Structure to design on (136 residues):
């Protein structure tokens, strides 16, 4: 029996100690919460003020960025239309050329021009002979 009473006393006192620690922790937590409340309020107020200042400072920057974005959009859309037209023209031209090459099965015609040089030479020889006869 001595052993069982020892364990009862040991675990019983442990149970009381744990309960006491839990109560102390709860009280300490409540005290910490109460002590931190003003600091939390100050931090919230500081955060709100900082956000308002950032909004005020960034508003003109955002407006300028918006203006530049609008100008860039206009410029890009102007050139995009022109580029699209040029690309469409090139595509149409390529289609036309490839279509005409694909459908034309006409053979190449090679022509030769033959000049009879012998006739010219005979005429020149006769002319030279006539000139020589006149001089003689």
């Amino acid at each position: 029996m001595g052993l069982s009473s020892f364990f009862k006393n040991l675990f019983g006192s442990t149970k009381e100690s744990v309960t006491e620690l839990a109560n102390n922790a709860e009280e300490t937590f409540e005290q910490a919460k109460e002590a931190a409340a003003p600091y939390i309020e100050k931090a919230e107020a500081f955060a709100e003020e900082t956000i308002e200042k950032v909004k005020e400072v960034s508003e003109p920057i955002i407006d300028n960025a918006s203006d530049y974005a609008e100008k860039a959009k206009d410029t890009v859309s102007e050139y995009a239309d022109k580029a699209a037209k040029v690309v469409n023209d090139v595509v149409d031209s390529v289609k036309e050329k490839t279509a005409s090459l694909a459908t034309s099965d006409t053979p190449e015609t090679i022509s030769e021009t033959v000049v009879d040089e012998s006739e010219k030479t005979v005429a020149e020889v006769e002319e030279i002979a006539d000139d020589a006869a006149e001089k003689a």
Q: What stands out?
A: DSSP finds two helices and no strands in the chain. Residues 11 and 17 are 10 Å apart (CA to CA). The radius of gyration is 54 Å.
